[in-house]
Amino acid sequence: MGVPAEVVHSLRILGLPSDATADDVRSAFRRLARTYHPDVAGRHYSRKFEQITKAYAILKELPQEESSNETAHPPKSASQNDVGRWFSFGGTLSRTFDWYRTKQERPGTEKETLRRAAEDAFKKTLIENEARVDAILNRGERMLEGLLSRRERETRRVGTKGLVLRLASGNCQVRHLALANLASLTSLGELANKPEIFETLSDSLQKWSIDDKTARLVSALPLTPDNHRRLACGLAVRASVMPDALLSHLLRLYDSHAADRELLETYLSHAGASGIALILRKWPHGTFVSESTLRRLISHEDESVLVAVLSTMKQRSVPCPESALGRLSTHLSHPNVAVRVWAKALLPASKR
């Protein structure tokens, strides 16, 4: 409802004409309030009393001060009738409408001002946060550069002989330090491929236990493709005690195009149950293990290996060798449900 209509509606509720004065509004409200107050007229007149109160509240907020000042000094050029209207409430109605409209529009303007202020504060905070993050990153980069610089100086000071001694040490922490120096310094990557360092590395991995940290550091070494394959072949006999992370790195199981089938077959002969299952899951598509290796795997005692072998054969439609059908038939009574299911799926109907 617009402002003029709202005022006119309020006058109608109070039963007043458009030229009613402020005193008329007050008198009408008091008269109607005494008549329709719920305590007097009953609770069913509560709605009527609320309408009267609301109408009086709207009319009471009109600028009576301006009306009083101007009614005290009406224009000299006005006629007697005009003067009468000037003293009336309706004489200042148009100016009252302008004031009331401005009052209603003011909250929207204040809300817009607050919204813009909030946006400006958010942008300022965002810029400050970005500056702090940049400062932290720059400080971290400087610290990292300093650390690498110190490590490089230390590595150059120690030299090849010092790295050889550290790689051959019986203390795993000393070996970790040497591997970290070789792995983290790209400018010294050629050191890892030097014959004396590479041979010491290979001998150390075959002699000492390979923990997870050693596996991660060895995986990060910048070895040439030839040295990578030499190291993989040399460590095949230790596949059963090798962490899966290093086994996956040496066999390049993350890259099916780079996987070496001959090397995979070698590792299947030495790897433990976990390694065999990992190799079979990552075996390159389009090929599968040889028949002799397959017969050996079907006869494996570890159920995790059997599940990996049989499920992979079924998924890749690899037929079971004739020489292994008898062993596969015995798996129909295996304690493991998965082994029984896959064995039954692979056996010809005539052999079940």
In summary, what is this structure?
The protein contains 19 helices and no strands. By secondary structure, it is an all-alpha fold.
How does this structure look, described?
70% of the residues lie in helices and 0% in strands. By secondary structure, it is mainly alpha-helical. The chain starts with a helix and ends in a 6-residue tail after the last helix. The model is unreliable at 65-92 (pLDDT under 50).
Q: What is the topological layout?
A:
Elements (H helix, E strand, L loop, with lengths): L2 H11 L8 H15 L1 H4 L4 H15 L3 H9 L7 H8 L5 H75 L4 H13 L4 H4 L2 H13 L4 H8 L5 H10 L9 H7 L10 H10 L2 H9 L9 H8 L4 H13 L9 H6 L6 H10 L6
Which structural traits does this protein have?
elongated, 352 residues
The end-to-end distance, rounded to whole angstroms, is 87 Å
Query: How confident overall, as mean pLDDT?
Result: 78
Indicate the percent of residues in helices.
over 70%
Shape: elongated
Q: What is the CA-atom radius of gyration, in angstroms?
A: 46 Å
What are the low-pLDDT stretches, counting only 5+ consecutive residues below 50?
65-92
SSE ordering:
HHHHHHHHHHHHHHHHHHH
Strand tally: 0
What's the total helix number?
19
How is the biggest beta sheet arranged?
Answer: none
Query: How does the helix and strand content classify structurally?
Result: mainly alpha
Percent of sequence in beta strands: under 5%
